[in-house]
């Protein structure tokens, strides 16, 4: 089965086409607020590299946020449109989980941090467990200094990942038990999206395209999406 995977929750547009869980074509572009311009050509190029037509796709997976309003709207709308047009399943996965997943082989608590702009971040915490990660702190929109205070209160070894960890590293480095994952772990991982979505599809655990919505943690963003 061919799977199209999309994540546009951050300034990075990531697209992959996978067959039976193995990525066969991949593109990652820095969008600079040009998600709508870049997403369709990226999808077309990945399909061309695999030599398949859109009609041969068996499912779509998409990062549903939290993340930047415009990017999320573009990615989720594209996934819904393709799923409707092809009558294929769609799987939505937390973009914070896609940041955390590649770090699952460590021992530290994983703090996934996506830049929310407006001097805030979207953040959640995950604990590595056999076979993956388990979320221990629910996603929230929070100021970097508030996240620092929470880390200090929890007093455990953590690894910080995501573009928000880079943007606010000067603040978050105030926690002595923090390690920063680095540039390779700034964007939600499309490889993780393929892996997690494939596992869910095998269990027939997918969404109705009509019910798929972005995860907006700011009420004003959620209200804007419904207009």
Topology, please?
Layout: E1 2-7, E2 12-19, E3 22-30, H1 35-50, E4 57-63, H2 69-86, E5 90-93, H3 95-100, E6 109-117, E7 120-129, E8 132-142, H4 144-154, E9 158-161, H5 163-167, H6 169-172, E10 178-180, H7 190-202, H8 219-226
Helix pairs in contact: 1-2
Describe the protein in words.
With 227 residues, the chain is α/β, with parallel strands linked by helices. It folds into two domains: 2-94 and 188-226, Nucleotidyltransferase, domain 5 (2-Layer Sandwich), CATH 3.30.420.40; 96-185, ATPase, nucleotide binding domain (Nucleotidyltransferase, domain 5). It is built from eight helices and ten strands. The strands form two sheets. A five-stranded mixed sheet has the order 3-2-1-4-5, sandwiched between helices. A five-stranded mixed sheet has the order 8-7-6-9-10. Helix 1 crosses helix 2 (69-86). The longest helix is centred in the middle third of the chain and has 18 residues, at 69-86. The radius of gyration is 17 Å and the shape is globular. The N and C termini lie far apart (35 Å).
């Amino acid at each position: 089965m061919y799977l199209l995977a999309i994540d546009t929750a951050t300034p990075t547009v990531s697209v992959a086409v996978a067959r039976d869980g193995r990525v066969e074509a991949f593109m990652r572009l820095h969008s600079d607020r040009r998600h709508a311009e870049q997403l369709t050509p990226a999808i077309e190029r990945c399909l061309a590299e695999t030599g398949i037509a859109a009609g041969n796709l068996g499912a779509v997976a998409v990062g549903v946020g939290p993340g930047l309003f415009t990017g999320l709207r573009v990615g989720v709308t594209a996934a819904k449109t393709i799923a409707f047009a092809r009558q294929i399943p769609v799987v939505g996965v937390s973009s914070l989980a896609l940041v955390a997943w590649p770090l699952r082989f460590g021992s530290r608590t994983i703090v996934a941090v996506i830049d929310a702009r407006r001097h805030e971040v979207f953040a959640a915490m995950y604990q590595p467990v056999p076979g993956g990660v388990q979320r221990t702190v629910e996603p929230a929109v929070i100021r970097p200094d508030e996240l620092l205070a929470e880390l200090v209160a929890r007093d455990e070894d953590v690894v910080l990942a995501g573009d928000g960890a880079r943007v606010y590293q000067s603040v978050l480095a105030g926690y002595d038990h923090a390690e920063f994952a680095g540039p390779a772990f700034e964007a939600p991982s499309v490889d993780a999206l393929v892996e997690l979505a494939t596992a869910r599809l095998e269990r027939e655990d997918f969404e109705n395209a009509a019910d798929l919505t972005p995860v907006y943690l700011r009420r004003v963003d959620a209200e804007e999406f419904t207009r």
